[in-house]
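Because showing beats explaining, we think one record worth quoting, sequence and C-alpha cells together, and here it is:
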Amino acid sequence: MNQRIEELRKIIAYHSDRYYNMDDPEITDYEYDQLMLELKKLEKEHPEEITADSPTQKVGGSAKREAGILVRHRVPMLSLQDVFSKEEVVQFVEDMRAQIEDPEFVVEMKIDGLSLGLRYEEGNLALAVTRGDGIVQGEDVTENAKVIKDVKKKLKDPVPYLEVRGEVYMTNKAFDDVNARQELLGKKIFANPRNCAAGTLRQLDSKITKERNLSMFVFNIQEVHGKTFQTHTEGYEYLKKNGIKVIEDYTVCKTAEEVWQAIEKIGERRGNLPYDIDGAVVKLNRLADRETVGETSKVPRWAVAYKYPPEEKETTLLDIELGVGRTGRITPTAVFAPVKLCGTMVSRATLHNQDFIDELDIRIGDTIVVYKSGEIIPKIKRVLKEKRPEGTVRYQIPSICPVCGEKTVREEDTADTRCTSPNCPAQLERHIINFVSRDAMDIKGFGTAYIEELSRQGYLKDVADIYDLRQHREELIEKGIIGKEKNTDKLLDMIEESKKNDLAKLLTGLGILNIGKATAKALARHFKTMDALEHADIEELTQVTDIGEVSASYIQKFFQDEKNRQILKRLKENGVNMESTEIAEDQRFFGKTFVLTGTLLTMGRKEAAEKIEKFGGKAASAVSKKTDYIVAGENAGSKLTKAQQLGITILSEGELLEMMK
C-alpha cells in the first residue's frame, strides 16, 4: 500500500506544480480532485503513513522569486476543504451545529482564478501579494494589481489597516480576446482563463497585464484595524460602500437544505456566467464562530468548497468542420446534435488535431459523450463504440487547405497541421504583421489595428499592397483609418524608408516555411541577391549553414509558386531592395550557434543576439546537440541544465563580452 501512496504523492506534486507554479495544467480539476481523494482515503486507512510533506497536509503552490519580491504573509492564505456530494455538505452543516449554537452560513460562487491579497494603509493600496506557499510568503505583484480595473487604489471610508483576499480572474470575452491576439502574433495560446490570469498577474511588465483586462472579486476580509464586523456579510457591505467588488449573489442560510438549494442555484447558473467558476463555497457567517471553530495547518474548519461533478450528455457527431487560424494551423471542430450542459445549449467542441481524433477514434455518425467540468468550453470525453453505426470511416484531416486549396503539412515534432501558403486569406493579417515587424521590414507605427482595418476594407490583400498604399493617401486620410494627415504621412514615410532594408529583412518577412531571422541572414550573405536565391537548386541551398533538404525544398517551392513570383515582381517594381547591403567584415562567430538564457546584466538578450549575428554567428532559442555555446545569465533555468547534460560550453556574460572585444 505504501507504494501506491508514494506514487500518488509524486503524481499530485507534479500536477500541483503544473497548476499553481507553471500555470499550465495537463489534467482537468476533476481528475486532480480524484487523485487527491484516493490519497486521502489511503492515508485515512493507514494514518501511520501520513507525513508533513504529503500534498494532503500542505497548501499547493510556492512563491516564485522571479515573479517579484517575496513578501511574508500577515495572515495565512489557506486552501479550502473540498467536498463532492450533498451528504458531505450536510455533514459539514451538522458538524458546525454540534460546535456552535444556531450557526449562519454564507453560500457563494468559487471563482476559478488566482488568489490575491490586498493591503490598504490609511485607505491607500500599499501592497498586493499572491498566495505563494499560502503560509509563509507570496510574491509582490503590486504594480500589476494597480492596473486591474476592479482593484481600488483608495478607499472612500479609510481605516488604519485593511487586508482583503480575493480572486483574480479573466472573463471569457477577455480570454478570447487575448488568445486571438496571441494567435495573430504567432505566440502560444492559453489553455483556459485561469492559466491566462495567473500568468498575466506574474508578468514583469504591467503594460501586458493592463492590456489583458483582468478582473477581481474580493471574498474575505483577512485583517482590519479601526473597525469591527460581526459577520462576513457585514464586511461585504463595508467593502461595497468603498467600491470594492465582492462575490456576486451570495446567499445567507440557516439549514442544511437551504445551503444545498443555494449550491444547486449556483450550479444552474454556472453555464450562463461570463466567467468560469469551479464550485460553491459554504462558510460560517459570524466571525466569532470562525474563531471558535479554528483552522488546521492547511484549511479553515469553518468553510468547505463544493465541487460540481462534470455534467455529461450523449449526442451524435454530425460533422467535422475545419478552420484555419491566422498562423495557418488547421483546427478540426466536432459538430454534434445540440445538448444542454450546465444550463446552456452546446453543439460544437474542438477536436484539437489529428492525434486527438486518432486517440478517440472518432467518426462522423458516432455517439459521443460531451461534458463540462465547471468550465464554459464543452469537451468530448469518449466515443460509445458499441453504438457505432455500420459504414463509418476513420477521419483524416485533408492534405489541402480548406480555405485556399494549397497543400498542408504536419509540422515536425508537433501535432499541428498547417497550410503552407503564405498567401492564404486566413493568414493574411498574421503574414502582414510578420512582414512589418522589427525583425523583418521594421515599419514602425504599423500596428495590428491598422493592419486589421486595412485588410477588412480591401487595401491589403498581400504584402506587396503595403507599397501601393501611397496611391490611396487621400482616401486613407478621409476615412481616418490611420489617423489624420500627419499620422498617415508618417506611416507612409516609414513604408518608403523600409524599401532600403537589407535582403535579409525582406526574406524574414516573406513567411517562407522554416526560414526565420537567422536563416534569412545566412541566405542573404551567401546568395547576395534575390535573383540568385530564386534560381538556386537544392544542392546549392543546402550548402548554406543550417539549411537542410526540408528547408531547401520549402525555399524552392516558395519561388516556384506563381503568386509569390508576382508579389516579388511588384515589390521590385515598387523599389524594394532585393540585394544584400550588409558588409560583414568580422566573421569570428561564423558557423557557431549560441543560446542565451537567464538575465544579462549589461545588455538585453535581444541586443546580445544582434551582436552575435553581427559577427556571423547564430542566436538560437533552444538547446540542441548543434549548440556550440550557452550564455548563462542570472536565474538561468532548464536550458542551462540541458546544456550541462549535453556537455556544451557554458559562457558567462563577461566571457561573451571578452570574445566580442
In short: The chain is about 35% helix and 20% strand. Residues 62-67 have pLDDT under 50 and may be disordered. The radius of gyration is 29 Å.
